[in-house]
Structures are given as structure tokens and as C-alpha cells.
Amino acid sequence: MSESASSGAVDETAVGSYFVANYPPFSVWSADAATSVATPALQSPPSNAALGMYLHIPFCRKRCHFCYFRVYTEKNAAEVQSYLDVVAREWELYAQHPAIADRPLDFIYFGGGTPSFLSVRQLKALIGRLEGVTPWDTAQEITFECEPGTLTEPKLASIRELGVTRLSLGIENFDDKILEVNGRAHRSPEIFRAYDFARSIGFPQINIDLIAGMLGETHDNWKACIDKTIELSPDSVTIYQMELPFNTTISSDILKGTGGFSNNVANWETKRQWVAEAFEALENAGYTVGSAYTAVKNPAHTKFVYRDRLWQGADLIGLGVASFGHVSGVHVQNIDSWGGYAEAVRQGQLPINRAYRPTDEERLIRELVLQLKLGTIRPSYFQNKYGVNVRTQFSEAWTSLNNDGYLARADDDLVELSREGLLRVDGLLPRFFLPEHTNIRYT
Length: 443
Ligand SMILES: C[S@@+](CC[C@H](N)C(=O)[O-])C[C@H]1O[C@@H](n2cnc3c(N)ncnc32)[C@H](O)[C@@H]1O
Ligand code: SF4
Fold this sequence. Notes:
Blueprint: H1 3-7, H2 31-43, E1 51-57, H3 77-95, E2 107-112, H4 120-133, E3 141-146, H5 153-161, E4 166-172, H6 176-181, H7 188-200, E5 205-212, H8 219-232, E6 236-241, H9 249-256, H10 268-284, E7 288-289, E8 294-296, H11 305-310, E9 315-319, E10 324-327, E11 330-334, H12 338-346, E12 352-356, H13 360-372, E13 376-377, H14 379-386, H15 390-393, H16 395-403, E14 407-410, E15 415-417, H17 419-423, H18 425-428
Parallel strand pairs: 1-2, 1-9, 2-3, 3-4, 4-5, 5-6
Antiparallel strand pairs: 6-8, 7-8, 10-11, 11-12, 13-15, 14-15
Helix pairs in contact: 3-4, 8-10
Iron/sulfur cluster binds next to loops.
């Protein structure tokens, strides 16, 4: 999972996971724990953590060659509707459990896949049914991920009316040739049309996703992408470094050696350099770098509640096929097949496929590594919550980061990564893992 583990001695972008989304690694979660641990946790009284809802909308117009998410591109309208019915039923089932019943929702996230693939009618029906169970007026943030080519003006207006506060546009790149080579369904005119209209109707927050190192990317084109991003002036910009987990089309092409793609993904050093330049340009334009992946125009106003709550151990119910969640101290993941997921829900069962109850030490490590992605952590937060001095408990890891030049500051108030450390943070986080979780499969 670490960068070096996935790419061998050289720095090329080889097949393997890089991004650390959770801890302990998903490979130690088990089917046994789904019944022996998750079920009793849901039957017990609620925790006092914040509660969020994630809805996985697994439909896309096309599968991008680099995508590693669970998505479907061939489902017809009836199948989409049946999926949405199952998702709504899943929430009704959760709401009958003591750990969830009557709890207010603090944040909601429509992810995918492509939530904006849904029609206005489908969206209104889904949200109406979910709100019939739990009102959404307590939610501080409702995020909605969009692929620009799926957005019409009436659809955007409805998304706004439905209460979405944070619109996230998967732009990835502004160059039509690069979009095509990477299998994206949208082209640049759709970006500008969607963005301008979204801005004009007053979404409180618009985020743009970019990927550094798409197939065919060049330095000049990347600089042009950053210039265009700054011209659009979104509230926040998220920049991912292209990775190639096993389940992408590019990865299987590489593994089979079929040579289906004539362009390569840039190596890690180049991608870090491109993100460093993007961050510098964004900072010169008034943005603040708020994490390894994000720059924010106005940090006082622009928050990312979903990310921050999650990285501080909130409860999250992940609805939909293959979704991840965390409830009452237990990690859970849903069944990852279309039929198996729907069948379980239709039988009145929660479709949890694997689960894991982290120990206190593992929960501490989870929060520590996730919060390190912000670039700074506060030792007092961990002292108050876990009674642990993270500076002494993880002294070996801090020393190694310091020796490698990845720490900018380390005292009792704040530990801060250097920019070089921040740009490669996912490759550094395994240094904090327990020995039994290093050098094992991540997913
Ligand atoms: C679920 S998608 C966002 C919504 C919509 N599906 C879209 O792509 O426009 C989440 C984001 O993950 C990022 N992403 C997907 N595959 C990636 C990969 N292999 N490496 C880095 N980032 C990736 C893209 O930036 C994408 O916008
Ligand atoms: S990157 Fe987005 S649009 Fe492309 S296949 Fe993945 S989820 Fe769908």
C-alpha cells in the first residue's frame, strides 16, 4: 500500500493502492464480525458521536479507464429505480435499530459513481422517502458529486432546491483529448456550462476535482488546467494524484500486458511536482492549502464537514452496494455485488458483508493517520480523547519522518508536515500502523 511497496524500486506508477482511506486495512475486516460484532452494536444504545449518511449512487455514463469505484454503466431506468428503492429500504431498516433510531443527521454525502446521473424525478422520490424517515433539516452539509456532462440547468436548479450545500464537480482535466484518452464521458464545453450555471444559482460551495497525472498529461497542459481552475475561482479545489488500484481498466491492461494504452501515467515524483506547482499557484491566487488534496479559497467560511467529522471518528451509515460505514465503534462494509446487496435488503436484513471492531489503539491510529492528511495534528486532541501522548507513543515514526525531511514542526501544540511530506502523505502513513498491519494487502 505504501508508495514504495506498490511501485517497487523505481518511482513509476505501478498497479497497487496508494490512498489510505481507513485503518486498520480493509483486508482484516471479516464476514464473521458482520454478525458477531456489527449486529449487536446496532442493537445497543446510540453513541454520542455525530451521525452522517453516505449514499452510493453507482451509475455512470461510461467507466473511466482509471476508475476503481463500484460502478455500473449498463443499467436501465427500471433497474436504477429498483436500486433506489433498495437504498431507501436500507435506511428504513437502519432507522429501526436502537443505535440509529431518532438520531439527527449532521451531514449527508451523495457519492458514487455519479449521483448526478439520476433524473430529477428519481432524486426527488429518493430524498422524499429518506426524509420521511429522518428529517434532513439538521444536516450542516449536503454534498453531491457530479460528472459535468450529466448536468442540465433544470437538474442543477433542482439539486439546489433539494438542499445541496456543497456541489462537487468531477472535472479532472480541461483538455478534451486527455478527457477522451482517459475514457471520460464529458468534454470541456460541458464543464463551463455546468459551472457557470451552478455559480449563478448560488450553491454555497462549489468544489472542483482534478487528477494530476492522467494518461497523456503534459506539464504545459497541467499548468493550463491550473490557470483555468483559478479563472473559475471555485470555493475549493481537490487534486488527486492518479493511482492505479487493481480494479481499474488501465491496471488490468498493464497486468495482462496487452498494451491497450499508448500513454503512461506520470511517475510519482512528477505527480508530486505537479501538485506542488498547483498548490503554489493556488496560494498565489489567495487559496489556502487545507490538506494533501485540497486548497480552499476562504477557510473561514468553506468547511468540509463530511471529511472532518469522519476523520474525527463520527458515525457514518453507508447506504448502497459496497458502501463503507462506521457505527458504534464498528467498521462495516456492505455486500459488493448488485444482486446480493439488493436481495439482503429485500429480505429485511442489513446488507453488511464484513466488519471490524477496532481496539482503542487502532481507533487512535486511524484518527492520527487520517488527520495527518490535513498536514497538521494537535497532540492535545489525542491526549483529551484517548489519554495518549502521540508524540511519545509514536516517537519512532516521528523521528523517521523528521530524518527524511517530512516534518516542518513538532511540539506539544502542533505537529506539522513539510510540504514535501504532505505531498506524499499516504505513502508515509504506514509508519504509524501496528506491525501486524504493515506489508499486508490493503483492500
Ligand atoms: C466518484 S468520483 C466523482 C464524481 C463523478 N463520478 C466523476 O467522476 O465526475 C470521485 C473522484 O475520484 C477521483 N478518482 C477516481 N479514480 C481515481 C484514480 N484512479 N486516481 C486518483 N483519483 C481518482 C476523481 O477525481 C473523481 O472525481
Ligand atoms: S471516475 Fe466518476 S464518472 Fe468515472 S467511472 Fe468513476 S465514478 Fe464514474
